[in-house]
């Protein structure tokens, strides 16, 4: 009989397990990243590639691409663990499921949200953002990505195990992500114009904190319902 | 006991009978109030000096917009009751709300864009209210899509209930973020200012229409919830008796 594991320890173990599994299959989490770069490349091709125009469009291109790529990555969040029964084991483990799902969502963000932040300077520069604006653009994507992963976890929990999950997931998550998109794109636009971004960044941070508080609870409820 | 009525309400046969009795009490006043409101709004209210006759679409647009939000709130409340007390009837009510609410949203969007044509010179303006209304429509469609994708009714009920609750928390955030977004890009539209300072001859028909629409929503919700309860309980004896009576 092994000793019961504390919730904190279990969370750390889960993060390490998920990271190890993901690093063995880099293809899975590299795909959304490549997708992000491809979509931001498509924007200039679809319009007049004059730098001043691209700069006006850059926040929209960056944020729509980030939103779609995070949506694409969401399917990876619970699917495999739902299929092989890991999620069921987590649900019956007696530890708070919302906490464990928060740990899983953190890993998901590390693998799909953080890489976006790292390649964002590249995409932003290509879209005409001045170098001085890069730290601001990246910081906003960092904050917004956290909120998107957390909101997305609820949708991923609800559509777990459904046959037509992919399109439905988009339909559920995208309307809920509207505030993140609005504040994120606005803050990015201000950053590119080299103006202070405090207002929208605070609002974005408020949404991220609210999502971190409530979304794991909703995701846990959703996963429990889907497992039955 | 104080809670007896509550548990009784949760019993499908009781709900079915009670809803059947209540429906006319909502439906007739709804019809009368709407007719009175329409007469007041379309005939006896004076012409607006700025907008001419075009403003009269307000008598359909505003009640529909109000009801589209109210239906979502009702849906979320019913879904919450269902989740907390595991009450099948509450789930039936929540499921019936979605299609009604989505219809009100579509009516509000269509009348809003028709109104926009003479006022703004275009059918679609990214006005904050219309934009939030559009996002609300997407929320309804997501809810209905989730229900349709899950075959097992019990699971569909509970999963969609979680979604409705998440949506109802998000709704004010979406509304204010869209408002904030819009205030950066354009000035407030003239419609916003006209609202508060409305003479009684215009305001009274609008209030009548709102009351009429609310009662209509209640009546149609009861009818749909009755149908939903019958569908869910189709294997039971009381449904057999009820259906036997009717034929």
Short key terms for the protein model shown above:
heterodimer; A: 0% strand; B: 247 residues; mainly alpha; 9 helices; 0% strand; globular
Description:
The complex is a heterodimer of chains A (228) and B (247). Chain A is mostly helical and 228 residues long. In chain A, 83% of the residues lie in helices and 0% in strands. With 247 residues, chain B is an all-alpha fold. Chain B has one domain (51-233). Chain B is built from nine helices and no strands. The two termini of chain B are 38 Å apart. Chain A binds chain B through residues 154, 158-159, 162-165, 168, 171-172, 174-176, 178-179, 182-183, 186, 203, 207, 214, 218, 221-222, 225-226, 228, and chain B through 135, 138-139, 141-142, 145-146, 149-150, 155, 158-159, 162-163, 165-167, 169-170, 173-174, 177-178, 180-181, 184.
How does the SSE layout of this entry go?
The complex is a heterodimer of chains A (228) and B (247).
Chain A: H1 7-24, H2 26-45, H3 51-83, H4 86-91, H5 97-126, H6 134-158, H7 165-176, H8 178-192, H9 198-227
Helix pairs in contact in A: 1-5, 2-3, 2-5, 3-5, 3-6, 3-7, 3-8, 5-6, 5-9, 6-7, 6-8, 6-9, 8-9
Chain B: H1 4-9, H2 12-44, H3 58-85, H4 88-120, H5 128-149, H6 153-185, H7 190-194, H8 200-232, H9 237-246
Helix pairs in contact in B: 2-8, 3-4, 3-6, 3-8, 4-5, 4-8, 5-6
Task: Briefly say what this structure is.
By secondary structure, chain A is mainly α. Helices cover 83% and strands 0% of the residues of chain A.
Regions of chain A with pLDDT < 50 over 5+ consecutive residues?
Answer: none
Proportion of residues in β-strands of chain A = under 5%
Beta-strand segment tally of chain B = 0
Mean pLDDT of chain A: 90
N-to-C SSE string of chain B, H for helix and E for strand: HHHHHHHHH
Domains of chain A (count): 1
Order of helices and strands of chain A: HHHHHHHHH
- Percentage of residues in helical conformation of chain B: over 70%
Main beta sheet of chain B, described? none
Q: Main β-sheet of chain A, in a few words? A: none
Largest interface: A-B, 27 and 26 residues
With helices defined by DSSP (H or I, 4 residues minimum), what is the helix count of chain B?
A: 9
Query: What does the oligomeric state look like here?
Result: heterodimer
N/C terminus separation of chain B: 38 Å
Terminal Cα separation of chain A, in Å? 28 Å
Overall SS class of chain A: mainly alpha
Unreliable spans of chain B: 187-194
- Count of all domains of chain B: 1
Q: Using the alpha-carbon principal axes, give the shape of chain B.
A: globular
Question: Approximately how much helix is present in the residues of chain A?
Answer: over 70%
């Amino acid at each position: 009989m092994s000793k019961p594991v504390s919730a904190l320890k279990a969370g750390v173990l889960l993060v390490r397990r998920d990271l190890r599994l993901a690093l063995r299959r880099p293809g899975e989490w590299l795909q959304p990243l490549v997708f992000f770069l491809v979509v931001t490349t498509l924007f200039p091709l679809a319009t007049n590639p004059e730098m001043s125009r691209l700069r006006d469009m850059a926040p929209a291109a960056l944020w729509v691409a980030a939103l779609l790529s995070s949506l694409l990555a969401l399917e990876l969040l619970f699917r495999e663990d739902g299929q092989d029964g890991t999620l069921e084991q987590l649900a019956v483990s007696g530890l708070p499921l919302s906490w464990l799902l928060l740990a899983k969502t953190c890993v998901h963000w590390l693998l799909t949200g953080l890489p976006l932040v790292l390649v964002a300077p590249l995409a932003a520069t290509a879209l005409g953002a001045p170098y001085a604006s890069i730290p601001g653009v990246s910081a906003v994507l960092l904050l917004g990505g956290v909120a998107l992963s957390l909101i997305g976890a609820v949708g991923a929990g609800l559509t777990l195990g459904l046959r037509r999950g992919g399109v439905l997931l988009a339909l559920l998550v995208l309307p809920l992500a509207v505030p993140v998109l609005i504040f994120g794109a606005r803050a990015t636009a201000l950053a590119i114009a080299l103006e202070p971004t405090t207002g929208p960044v605070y609002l974005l941070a408020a949404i991220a904190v609210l999502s971190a508080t409530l979304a794991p609870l909703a995701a846990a409820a959703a996963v429990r319902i889907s497992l039955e | 006991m104080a809670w007896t009525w509550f548990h009784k309400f949760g019993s499908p046969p009781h709900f079915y009978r009670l809803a059947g009795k209540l429906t006319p009490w909502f439906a007739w006043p709804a019809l009368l109030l709407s007719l009175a409101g329409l007469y007041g709004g379309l005939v006896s209210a004076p012409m607006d000096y700025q907008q001419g006759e075009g403003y009269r679409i307000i008598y359909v647009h505003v009640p529909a917009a109000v009801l589209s939000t109210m239906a979502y709130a009702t849906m979320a409340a019913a879904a919450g009751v269902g989740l907390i007390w595991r009450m099948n009837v509450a789930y039936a009510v929540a499921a019936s709300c979605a299609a009604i609410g989505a219809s009100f949203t579509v009516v509000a969007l269509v009348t809003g864009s028709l109104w926009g044509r003479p006022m703004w010179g275009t059918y679609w303006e990214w006005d904050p209210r219309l934009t939030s209304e559009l996002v609300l429509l997407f929320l309804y469609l997501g809810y209905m899509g989730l229900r349709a994708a899950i075959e097992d009714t019990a699971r569909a009920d509970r999963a969609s209930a979680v979604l409705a609750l998440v949506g109802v928390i998000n709704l004010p955030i979406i509304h204010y973020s869209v408002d904030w977004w819009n205030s950066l890009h354009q000035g407030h539209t003239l419609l916003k200012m006209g609202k508060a300072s409305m003479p009684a001859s215009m305001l009274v028909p609008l209030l009548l229409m709102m009351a009429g629409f609310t009662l209509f929503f209640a009546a149609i919700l009861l009818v749909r919830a009755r149908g939903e309860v019958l569908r869910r309980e189709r294997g039971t004896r009381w449904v057999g008796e009820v259906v036997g009576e009717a034929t």
